[in-house]
Design a protein that fits this description.
The chain has a single domain, classed as UDP-N-acetylmuramoyl-L-alanine:D-glutamate ligase (3-Layer(aba) Sandwich), CATH 3.40.1190. Helices cover 50% and strands 16% of the residues. The protein has helices at residues 2-15, 28-38, 51-57, 71-86, 102-113, 123-129, 149-159, 194-205, 211-230, 236-249, 252-258; strands spanning 18-22, 41-43, 61-65, 91-94, 118-121, 136-137, 140-141, 162-165, 169-173, 178-182, 260-263. The protein has a 9-stranded mixed beta sheet, sandwiched between helices. The protein has a two-stranded antiparallel ribbon with strand order 6-7. It is globular.
Length: 264
Protein backbone atom coordinates (compact mmCIF):
# COMPACT_ATOMS: atom_id res chain seq x y z
CA UNK A 1 0.00 0.00 0.00
CA UNK A 2 2.83 2.40 0.81
CA UNK A 3 4.35 1.67 -2.61
CA UNK A 4 1.01 2.56 -4.18
CA UNK A 5 0.98 5.89 -2.35
CA UNK A 6 4.52 6.68 -3.49
CA UNK A 7 3.75 5.79 -7.10
CA UNK A 8 0.57 7.91 -7.10
CA UNK A 9 2.37 10.91 -5.63
CA UNK A 10 5.11 10.70 -8.24
CA UNK A 11 2.63 10.28 -11.08
CA UNK A 12 0.52 13.20 -9.91
CA UNK A 13 3.51 15.52 -9.88
CA UNK A 14 4.66 14.32 -13.29
CA UNK A 15 1.26 14.71 -14.93
CA UNK A 16 0.00 17.80 -12.99
CA UNK A 17 -3.67 16.97 -13.62
CA UNK A 18 -6.15 19.79 -14.09
CA UNK A 19 -8.92 19.39 -11.51
CA UNK A 20 -12.21 21.24 -11.84
CA UNK A 21 -13.86 22.20 -8.56
CA UNK A 22 -17.49 23.12 -8.15
CA UNK A 23 -17.05 24.00 -4.53
CA UNK A 24 -18.15 26.35 -1.80
CA UNK A 25 -17.00 29.94 -1.60
CA UNK A 26 -15.23 29.42 1.74
CA UNK A 27 -12.93 26.72 0.39
CA UNK A 28 -11.86 28.10 -2.97
CA UNK A 29 -8.59 29.69 -1.91
CA UNK A 30 -7.37 26.91 0.37
CA UNK A 31 -8.44 24.23 -2.12
CA UNK A 32 -6.61 25.92 -4.98
CA UNK A 33 -3.47 26.35 -2.89
CA UNK A 34 -3.58 22.74 -1.69
CA UNK A 35 -3.89 21.42 -5.24
CA UNK A 36 -1.02 23.55 -6.49
CA UNK A 37 1.15 22.57 -3.50
CA UNK A 38 0.64 18.85 -4.00
CA UNK A 39 1.43 19.16 -7.72
CA UNK A 40 -1.92 19.47 -9.49
CA UNK A 41 -3.67 22.41 -11.14
CA UNK A 42 -7.04 23.82 -9.98
CA UNK A 43 -9.86 25.33 -12.04
CA UNK A 44 -12.81 26.92 -10.25
CA UNK A 45 -15.11 26.72 -13.27
CA UNK A 46 -18.69 26.46 -12.05
CA UNK A 47 -20.87 28.74 -14.17
CA UNK A 48 -23.71 26.66 -15.64
CA UNK A 49 -22.97 28.08 -19.10
CA UNK A 50 -19.50 26.48 -19.22
CA UNK A 51 -18.94 23.97 -16.42
CA UNK A 52 -19.82 20.83 -18.36
CA UNK A 53 -18.00 21.97 -21.48
CA UNK A 54 -14.86 22.76 -19.50
CA UNK A 55 -14.86 19.36 -17.85
CA UNK A 56 -15.41 17.58 -21.15
CA UNK A 57 -12.72 19.45 -23.05
CA UNK A 58 -10.14 20.54 -20.45
CA UNK A 59 -10.16 18.97 -16.99
CA UNK A 60 -9.05 15.48 -16.01
CA UNK A 61 -11.17 15.17 -12.85
CA UNK A 62 -14.00 16.85 -10.96
CA UNK A 63 -14.70 17.58 -7.30
CA UNK A 64 -18.23 18.56 -6.25
CA UNK A 65 -18.80 20.19 -2.86
CA UNK A 66 -22.28 21.20 -1.69
CA UNK A 67 -21.15 23.55 1.08
CA UNK A 68 -22.70 26.84 -0.13
CA UNK A 69 -25.55 25.33 -2.05
CA UNK A 70 -28.07 27.04 -4.33
CA UNK A 71 -30.61 25.81 -6.85
CA UNK A 72 -28.36 26.90 -9.72
CA UNK A 73 -25.23 25.30 -8.27
CA UNK A 74 -27.09 22.06 -7.55
CA UNK A 75 -28.22 21.85 -11.17
CA UNK A 76 -24.71 22.65 -12.40
CA UNK A 77 -23.22 19.96 -10.17
CA UNK A 78 -25.62 17.36 -11.52
CA UNK A 79 -25.06 18.26 -15.16
CA UNK A 80 -21.28 18.32 -14.77
CA UNK A 81 -21.31 15.00 -12.94
CA UNK A 82 -23.24 13.51 -15.86
CA UNK A 83 -20.54 14.85 -18.18
CA UNK A 84 -17.84 13.28 -16.02
CA UNK A 85 -19.54 9.91 -16.29
CA UNK A 86 -20.01 10.23 -20.05
CA UNK A 87 -16.36 11.18 -20.49
CA UNK A 88 -15.17 8.45 -18.08
CA UNK A 89 -13.48 11.01 -15.82
CA UNK A 90 -13.35 10.49 -12.04
CA UNK A 91 -15.44 12.71 -9.82
CA UNK A 92 -15.54 13.15 -6.06
CA UNK A 93 -18.64 14.04 -4.05
CA UNK A 94 -18.18 16.02 -0.83
CA UNK A 95 -21.65 16.04 0.81
CA UNK A 96 -21.12 18.95 3.20
CA UNK A 97 -23.81 19.06 5.93
CA UNK A 98 -25.98 16.84 3.73
CA UNK A 99 -28.33 15.96 6.56
CA UNK A 100 -28.95 19.50 7.76
CA UNK A 101 -31.89 20.49 5.51
CA UNK A 102 -34.31 18.90 3.10
CA UNK A 103 -32.71 20.79 0.19
CA UNK A 104 -29.34 19.27 1.06
CA UNK A 105 -30.81 15.80 1.49
CA UNK A 106 -32.51 16.03 -1.91
CA UNK A 107 -29.36 17.35 -3.58
CA UNK A 108 -27.23 14.68 -1.96
CA UNK A 109 -29.60 11.94 -3.11
CA UNK A 110 -29.61 13.33 -6.68
CA UNK A 111 -25.82 13.48 -6.86
CA UNK A 112 -25.51 10.04 -5.28
CA UNK A 113 -27.78 8.63 -8.00
CA UNK A 114 -25.24 9.88 -10.56
CA UNK A 115 -22.69 7.40 -9.17
CA UNK A 116 -19.68 9.38 -7.97
CA UNK A 117 -16.31 7.69 -8.19
CA UNK A 118 -15.40 8.60 -4.62
CA UNK A 119 -17.40 10.02 -1.72
CA UNK A 120 -15.52 11.86 1.03
CA UNK A 121 -17.11 13.28 4.14
CA UNK A 122 -17.13 13.27 7.90
CA UNK A 123 -18.90 10.56 9.86
CA UNK A 124 -22.20 12.42 10.18
CA UNK A 125 -22.28 13.29 6.48
CA UNK A 126 -21.65 9.69 5.46
CA UNK A 127 -24.35 8.43 7.82
CA UNK A 128 -26.82 10.99 6.49
CA UNK A 129 -26.02 10.15 2.88
CA UNK A 130 -26.58 6.48 3.71
CA UNK A 131 -29.99 7.42 5.19
CA UNK A 132 -28.91 6.47 8.69
CA UNK A 133 -29.47 9.85 10.33
CA UNK A 134 -26.21 11.22 11.68
CA UNK A 135 -25.67 13.81 14.38
CA UNK A 136 -24.14 17.12 13.35
CA UNK A 137 -24.00 20.84 14.00
CA UNK A 138 -24.07 22.18 10.46
CA UNK A 139 -20.78 21.13 8.86
CA UNK A 140 -19.34 19.65 12.08
CA UNK A 141 -19.55 15.93 12.73
CA UNK A 142 -21.45 14.70 15.76
CA UNK A 143 -20.59 11.06 15.17
CA UNK A 144 -17.32 9.20 15.58
CA UNK A 145 -15.67 7.63 12.54
CA UNK A 146 -16.00 4.16 14.07
CA UNK A 147 -19.77 4.65 14.43
CA UNK A 148 -20.14 5.19 10.68
CA UNK A 149 -17.92 2.40 9.34
CA UNK A 150 -20.75 -0.05 8.63
CA UNK A 151 -22.77 2.73 7.01
CA UNK A 152 -19.79 3.55 4.79
CA UNK A 153 -19.53 -0.08 3.69
CA UNK A 154 -23.24 -0.19 2.87
CA UNK A 155 -23.05 3.11 1.02
CA UNK A 156 -20.10 1.87 -1.02
CA UNK A 157 -22.02 -1.28 -1.97
CA UNK A 158 -25.19 0.58 -2.93
CA UNK A 159 -23.51 3.44 -4.80
CA UNK A 160 -20.53 1.72 -6.41
CA UNK A 161 -18.27 4.46 -5.01
CA UNK A 162 -15.25 4.27 -2.79
CA UNK A 163 -16.30 5.89 0.49
CA UNK A 164 -13.89 7.73 2.77
CA UNK A 165 -14.75 8.98 6.24
CA UNK A 166 -12.24 11.53 7.45
CA UNK A 167 -11.62 12.57 11.02
CA UNK A 168 -9.09 11.91 13.80
CA UNK A 169 -8.83 8.49 12.12
CA UNK A 170 -9.78 7.94 8.47
CA UNK A 171 -11.74 4.99 7.13
CA UNK A 172 -11.74 3.92 3.47
CA UNK A 173 -13.85 1.21 1.88
CA UNK A 174 -15.12 -0.01 -1.46
CA UNK A 175 -17.71 -2.16 0.29
CA UNK A 176 -15.57 -5.28 0.35
CA UNK A 177 -12.10 -4.04 1.24
CA UNK A 178 -11.54 -1.58 4.07
CA UNK A 179 -8.74 0.10 5.96
CA UNK A 180 -8.13 2.65 8.66
CA UNK A 181 -5.52 5.37 8.29
CA UNK A 182 -3.83 7.07 11.22
CA UNK A 183 -1.88 10.33 11.04
CA UNK A 184 -2.55 14.03 10.71
CA UNK A 185 -2.60 16.58 13.52
CA UNK A 186 -5.08 17.95 16.03
CA UNK A 187 -4.98 21.44 14.51
CA UNK A 188 -6.38 20.29 11.17
CA UNK A 189 -10.06 20.70 12.20
CA UNK A 190 -9.24 24.21 13.45
CA UNK A 191 -8.52 25.48 9.92
CA UNK A 192 -11.63 26.10 7.86
CA UNK A 193 -12.08 24.21 4.58
CA UNK A 194 -9.13 21.83 4.91
CA UNK A 195 -11.58 18.96 4.50
CA UNK A 196 -13.12 20.60 1.45
CA UNK A 197 -9.66 21.02 -0.03
CA UNK A 198 -8.98 17.33 0.58
CA UNK A 199 -11.83 16.43 -1.77
CA UNK A 200 -10.09 18.34 -4.56
CA UNK A 201 -6.79 16.66 -3.74
CA UNK A 202 -8.55 13.29 -3.80
CA UNK A 203 -9.89 14.06 -7.28
CA UNK A 204 -6.33 14.82 -8.40
CA UNK A 205 -5.07 11.50 -7.06
CA UNK A 206 -8.00 9.74 -8.76
CA UNK A 207 -6.26 10.44 -12.09
CA UNK A 208 -3.24 8.37 -10.99
CA UNK A 209 -4.68 5.05 -9.78
CA UNK A 210 -7.85 3.01 -9.27
CA UNK A 211 -10.31 4.76 -6.92
CA UNK A 212 -9.57 2.72 -3.79
CA UNK A 213 -5.81 3.11 -4.08
CA UNK A 214 -6.11 6.76 -5.14
CA UNK A 215 -8.24 7.57 -2.10
CA UNK A 216 -5.67 5.99 0.18
CA UNK A 217 -2.89 7.96 -1.52
CA UNK A 218 -4.74 11.26 -1.14
CA UNK A 219 -5.66 10.75 2.50
CA UNK A 220 -2.21 9.46 3.41
CA UNK A 221 -0.49 12.42 1.75
CA UNK A 222 -2.83 14.81 3.53
CA UNK A 223 -2.31 13.16 6.91
CA UNK A 224 1.46 13.19 6.51
CA UNK A 225 1.42 16.87 5.56
CA UNK A 226 -0.71 17.61 8.61
CA UNK A 227 1.73 15.78 10.86
CA UNK A 228 4.66 17.70 9.41
CA UNK A 229 2.88 21.06 9.59
CA UNK A 230 2.00 20.50 13.22
CA UNK A 231 5.67 20.46 14.15
CA UNK A 232 6.10 24.03 12.93
CA UNK A 233 2.81 25.66 13.94
CA UNK A 234 1.96 27.70 17.04
CA UNK A 235 -1.77 27.67 16.32
CA UNK A 236 -4.37 27.43 13.55
CA UNK A 237 -3.12 30.48 11.63
CA UNK A 238 0.47 29.36 11.32
CA UNK A 239 -0.68 25.78 10.78
CA UNK A 240 -2.61 26.80 7.64
CA UNK A 241 0.56 28.25 6.13
CA UNK A 242 2.75 25.39 7.31
CA UNK A 243 0.32 22.85 5.86
CA UNK A 244 0.58 24.24 2.33
CA UNK A 245 4.38 24.23 2.68
CA UNK A 246 4.25 20.63 3.91
CA UNK A 247 2.17 19.48 0.95
CA UNK A 248 4.70 21.11 -1.35
CA UNK A 249 7.68 19.46 0.39
CA UNK A 250 6.04 16.06 0.83
CA UNK A 251 7.97 12.96 -0.24
CA UNK A 252 6.95 9.28 -0.28
CA UNK A 253 9.31 8.63 2.63
CA UNK A 254 7.54 11.28 4.70
CA UNK A 255 4.20 9.62 4.00
CA UNK A 256 5.63 6.27 5.07
CA UNK A 257 7.11 7.69 8.27
CA UNK A 258 4.10 9.77 9.33
CA UNK A 259 1.08 7.55 8.64
CA UNK A 260 -0.04 4.09 9.68
CA UNK A 261 -2.45 1.85 7.77
CA UNK A 262 -4.58 -0.85 9.36
CA UNK A 263 -6.25 -3.23 6.90
CA UNK A 264 -9.49 -4.66 8.29
Amino acid sequence: MIDTVAQSLRQLRESAPLVQLITNYVSMNIAANALIAVGASPAMVQAPEEASEFLRDCAQALAVNIGTLSDISAQTMAETAKTANAADKPWVLDPVAVGATQFRRDTGAKLLSLRPTIIRGNASEIRALANRGGSSRGVDAGDMVSEAESDARNLAHSSGAVVAITGPMDFITDGDRAMRLFGGHGLMPKVTALGCALSGVTAAFATTAAPYEATLAALAAYAAAGSLAGEHAAGPGSFAVAFIDALHMLTPDMVHERTRIEII
